[in-house]
Amino acid sequence: MYDNLCLETVVKRCRVVLVGDGGGKLDDDPPPATDWGRQTLRVMKLIDNGVRNLRKRQVIDVVESPGRNGA
């Protein structure tokens, strides 16, 4: 996942940026499962969560930059 919120294209073309993220949130887990299937799923969720947080920080920086508006 590179640009799962399509922010790069929007930021290059628009002065007003409105973003809504309907994605899931990583819940607290009981002790992690020991089988490879559920471990793989947990790793994928962690990666998705990291990418999502990075994009959120990027859009906040864009909205707060001079000459831009958004929410």
- Major sheet size, sense and barrel closure: 2 strands, parallel
The strand count comes to 2
What sequence of helices (H) and strands (E) makes up the elements?
HEHE
**Rg on CA atoms, Å:** 16 Å
Work out the helix count: 2
Rounded mean pLDDT is 78
Helix content: 40-55%
Beta-strand residue fraction: 5-15%
Shape descriptor reads: elongated
How does this structure look, described?
By secondary structure, the chain is mostly helical. The chain has a domain at 35-71. Helix content is 51%, strand content 6%. The chain has two helices and two strands; from the N terminus they run αβαβ. The chain has a two-stranded parallel ribbon. The protein is elongated. The two termini are 23 Å apart. 1% of the residues are buried. The model has no long low-confidence stretch (mean pLDDT 78).
